Amino acid sequence: MKNSILYQKYRPQTFSELIGREDVSRILVNEVLSNSIGNAYIFFGSKGTGKTSIARIFSKAINCLNLEKNGDPCNSCTNCKSINDSSFMDLLEIDAASNRGIEDIRDLKNKVQFAPTSGKYKIYIIDEVHMLTKDAFNALLKTLEEPPENVVFIFATTEINKVPETIISRCQRFDFLKASYKDLMSQLNKVTKLEKIKLDDDIKDLIITISEGSFRDTMTNLQKILSIYSENLDYNDVVKILNFPDIEFLKIIWEYLFEGNLEKILDQFERNTIDVVSFVKNSLDFIKKVLVNRTLEKQYYKIDDKLFENITTDKIFNIVNILIKTLDDIRISSSDIICLEMAFVFIMKDLNILNKESIPSVSYKPNLIKTKSVEVKVNLNKTISVNKDNFISDKLRDAWPEIISRTKSFNHHMSAFLAKSNFSFEDNIFIIQVPFPFYRDMLIEPKSKEYLSGIIKSVIGKDIILDCIVDKNIKPFIVSSKSNNIDEDDIKELFDIENSL
Ligand SMILES: [Zn+2]
Predict the structure, then answer these.
(1) Could you tell me the distance, in angstroms and rounded to a whole number, from the CA of residue 81 to the centre of ligand 1?
(2) CA 119–ligand 1 middle distance (angstroms)
(3) May I ask the CATH class of domain 181-241?
(4) Cα of 6 from ligand 1 centre, angstroms
(5) DSSP states of 376-438 as a string?
(6) DSSP 8-state assignment for residue 130
(7) From the CA of 89, how far away is ligand 1's center (Å)?
(8) How far is the CA of 50 from the centre of ligand 1 (A)?
(9) Residues 6+ apart with CB under 8 A from 6
(10) In 10 A of CB 233, how many CB atoms?
(11) What distance in angstroms lies between residue 78's CA and the mean position of ligand 1's atoms?
(12) From CA 378, how far away is CA 353, in angstroms rounded?
């Protein structure tokens, strides 16, 4: 889908047709009109920002036999036509990703010496120029140092830091920013109108969000939608076809959050596999749009922002701060889901909607983890208690305080969690019962699991299968001096979160 049909069809053919590239096109048009064409240009920007489209328009303009007064190529002379159908002998487009060696550039150097055959200028567009090898860059540099007459190089790159400074310094550099929301929306409006299709604003917003500032991706995503288009196409169909479930999921989660229903949120997290970082980033993107609409007092972003209508702007800023901090926390944490759960607790607390009743009465079904390729089955209805008749259980009970103490050196959160948990041992399966899902997430994290299994093995002298289940009513095997209810101090103590809010 790299070059979608729509993208080709609506690719701008003149400077005037470009949307949101006025900064670059104004300079190039001036050069065309004043006939002061440079030898080398470098276009830097992320994918789909119009680098090669502009390179082609510029190539046409400097070879056009019938240039428009405003500097646009005519698109009807033989040169323009042959560039449009890729048959123009004096325009060579090279993909440096597949022609990156010294031989390719030597070949180019030889050809450069010959005068243009049919145009005024011979043009080399080298895409992804940063992919060239060091030797190839050196060979290219020699050509740039003594450029033959009427040869124009246009380099395009997504990674300017990988292009040698010696090359960049010999080029006119143009930076292509990502397309703005407004520009992408006007492109979408234009194309949907020409294609005679009607899309709701929230669908257009979704396309733009997914396309991340790329004209090409915007057209490619629109094309995917056209493949299933009908008059009654709805938002959810589009979410599916664009493979973007997060937005719907995101709305559900925030709805629960504003209801103060932590339990339902945790339940959703248990039942869905979520990409926490995307979830937080998408939430921030959505909230940014809410804030902009509210500040401008108009629907600048075409989103359904009813969800936040009862939340004051100050509180929304607090939410943003908590989410930004969460992204930082995720980077250094072993469990991103814990960071997100914590963020929600803090947001609810800030909104004053966190009440004890909403704190996990978790109906968590243990997701049994495979260890050593053994599938473990446990009868969940069985009351899990320490089997006093079992010799190993007794041994473990005796050693439990020591086990907890030993885990301190590995991770003091682990020892704190274990101190508030209980356990059972049956059929070689060691099950830790914990009061909260985030305890479980930490304990079954591979490194924690490996460490803890090792300690237990050293106590009972054999390998065990370790699992963890959540039961909010669990009585800790060692009764902690604190109550088993979660409170802010517990959270701060367990996660070293001090003065974070
Ligand atoms: Zn022309």
Answers:
(1) 7
(2) 11
(3) mainly alpha
(4) 24
(5) ----TTS-----TT-HHHHHHHHHHHHHHHHHTTT-HHHHHHHHT-EEEEETTEEEEEESSHH
(6) G
(7) 15
(8) 20
(9) 191, 195, 219, 220, 222, 223, 226
(10) 18
(11) 7
(12) 37
Kindly list the averaged pLDDT for each block of 10 residues, start to end, along the chain of length 501.
Answer: 73 93 93 95 93 96 96 96 93 87 81 84 94 90 88 95 95 93 92 91 88 90 86 80 73 88 84 82 89 86 85 92 91 84 90 63 34 31 38 78 82 83 80 83 83 82 80 68 43 41 33
Q: Is 101 left (phi over 0), alpha (psi -120 to 50) or beta?
A: beta
Class of domain 391-484: alpha beta
Measured in Å, residue 246 CA sits from the centre of ligand 1 at: 47
Distance 56 CA to ligand 1 centre (A): 12
Residues written for the chain: 501
C-alpha R_g of the chain: 31
Task: Say how many Å lie between the CA of residue 82 and the centre of ligand 1.
Answer: 10
Predicted local confidence at residue 388, as pLDDT: 38
Q: 1: CA distance to ligand 1 center in Å?
A: 30
- Three-state DSSP class for 152? strand
Unique residue bearing structure tokens 């900064």: 23
Residue 439 makes CB contacts below 8 A (sequence gap 6+) with 417, 420, 421, 468, 470
Class of domain 5-176: alpha beta
Cα-to-centroid distance, 59 and ligand 1 (Å)? 10
Domain residue spans in the chain?
A: 5-176, 181-241, 246-358, 391-484
Say whether 155 sits in a helix, a strand or coil: strand
Question: How far, in Å, is the centroid of ligand 1 from the Cα of 173?
Answer: 25
Contacts of 336 (CB under 8 A, 6+ apart): 276, 277, 330
- The pLDDT score that the predictor gives to residue 104 is 81
Q: How far is the CA of 70 from the centre of ligand 1 (A)?
A: 13
Indicate the pTM of the whole model.
0.59
The fold of 246-358 is Zinc Finger, Delta Prime; domain 3 (1.20.272)
Which pLDDT score is estimated for 440? Answer: 83
Q: Find the 157 Cα to ligand 1 centroid distance in Å.
A: 27
Output the DSSP codes for 161-200. Answer: GGS-HHHHTTSEEEEEPPPPHHHHHHHHHHHHHHTT----
pLDDT of residue 478: 66
